[in-house]
Specification:
- There is one protein chain.
- β7, α6 and β8 form a beta-alpha-beta unit.
- The protein has a five-stranded mixed β-barrel with strand order 5-8-7-6-9.
- The protein is of the alpha/beta class.
- It has a domain of 193 residues: 3-Layer(aba) Sandwich (Rossmann fold).
- The longest helix has 25 residues.
- It has eight helices and nine strands.
- α1 packs across α3 and α5 packs across α8.
- The structure holds hypoxanthine (HPA).
- The site of hypoxanthine (HPA) has 13 residues, from β5, β8 and β9.
C-alpha cells in the first residue's frame, strides 16, 4: 500500500520555516515556469532554498528557482514560492501539494497561483494574462488526486466542494486591478495535465472540445488541496505559446521561459494591485 503523508510532515516544515523568520504571512504566491522573477520584488526578504527545509520536495526544472521567499509586497506579509514541484518530476500528488498544507498550517488564508500555459482558446496570444475562472483536474478525475488517502480531518472534509474553486470576490478584485492598470485580462478555464510531453494536435482539439482555454502541467492539484483546507484562491495563467492544433509548429520549454519575460511585469502589476486591495 502507498504510504501517505500526514499533518505531522506539514507541521515539521512549518516549524523549520518559523525558525528562519517570524513573519506571519496571510497570503501565499506560487510562481510558475519563467515567472520566478516576481520574487525579486519582495522586501525585507528571507529566502530559504527548498533544500534547507527537510521534507520539502525540490524542483528539478530549469526556470524554477526552488526557494521560499518570506517578506513584504505592498505592505502585505507574503509567503512566495519561487518555483514549484511538478507531478512529472516523479513526486506523488501529495508531495506536490505538501507546500499548500504547510501554508495552511502556518495560517495563510489566501493563495495566489500562477503558471505558464499554452493557449487553447484561439483568441489568446503569447504574452496574455488569463484570469483562471475555473479548472479541470483531468488526472484527478481519473485517479491521480492529491486528496486520495486518509482524509486530513483537522483541515477539511472528506468530500470537499469545488463549486467555486477560484474565489469570485478575488476575481472581481483582479478585474478591477486590470481595468485600472490598463492590462487586458483574458479569462477562462485552465486544465492541468501531468505532462511532461506537450500535447499532440489531436489532444489539443480534444481539449478545445472540452471547453478548455489554457493548458498546463500544474496548479489544479494545489487548488484542490487549498480548497479542501478552506484557503481562498486566485489564479493567473501567463500564456506562453499558442496551442498548435494543426501540428504546424513546435512547442518548446525555451519558448515558455521567453514569454515569461513579457509576462512578469504584467503579473507583477496584477498581484501588487490585488495585494493593495486585500
Ligand atoms: N502545454 C502544456 N503545458 C504548457 C504549455 C503547453 O502548451 N505551455 C506552457 N506550459
Amino acid at each position: 500500500m502507498t504510504s501517505f503523508l500526514t499533518v505531522r510532515e506539514a507541521d515539521a516544515i512549518a516549524k523549520a520555516i518559523r525558525t528562519r523568520s517570524d513573519l506571519q504571512p496571510r497570503v501565499a504566491i506560487i510562481l510558475g515556469s519563467g515567472l520566478s522573477g516576481l520574487a525579486e520584488a519582495v522586501q525585507n526578504a528571507v529566502a530559504i532554498p527548498y533544500g534547507e527545509l527537510p521534507g520539502w520536495p525540490r524542483s528539478t526544472v530549469e526556470g524554477h528557482a526552488g526557494r521560499l521567499v518570506l517578506g513584504y509586497l505592498e505592505g502585505q506579509p507574503v509567503f512566495v514560492m519561487q518555483g514549484r514541484i511538478h507531478y512529472y518530476e516523479g513526486y506523488t500528488m501529495q508531495q506536490v501539494t505538501l507546500p499548500v498544507r504547510v501554508m495552511q498550517r502556518m495560517g495563510i488564508e489566501t493563495l495566489i497561483v500562477t503558471n505558464a500555459a499554452g493557449a487553447v482558446n484561439p483568441d489568446f496570444a503569447p504574452g496574455d494574462v488569463m484570469l483562471i475562472t475555473d479548472q479541470i483536474n483531468l488526472p484527478g478525475m481519473t485517479g491521480a488526486h492529491p486528496l486520495i488517502g486518509p482524509n486530513w480531518d483537522e483541515l477539511g472534509p472528506r468530500f470537499p466542494d469545488m463549486s467555486q474553486a477560484y474565489d469570485r470576490q478575488l476575481q472581481a478584485t483582479a478585474r478591477a486591478v486590470a481595468a485600472e492598470a490598463d492590462i487586458s485580462l483574458q479569462e477562462g478555464v485552465y486544465i492541468g495535465l501531468s505532462g511532461p510531453s506537450f500535447e499532440t494536435p489531436a489532444e489539443l482539439r480534444f481539449l478545445r472540445a472540452l471547453g478548455v482555454d489554457a493548458v498546463g502541467m500544474s496548479t489544479v492539484w494545489e487548488v484542490a488541496v487549498a480548497r479542501h483546507g478552506g484557503t481562498r484562491v486566485l489564479g493567473f495563467s501567463g500564456i506562453s505559446n499558442k496551442a498548435n492544433l494543426d501540428g504546424s509548429t513546435l512547442t518548446t520549454h525555451e519558448e515558455v521561459l521567453e514569454a515569461g519575460k513579457i509576462l512578469v511585469p504584467k503579473l507583477e502589476a496584477m498581484i501588487r494591485g490585488v495585494l493593495r486591495r486585500l
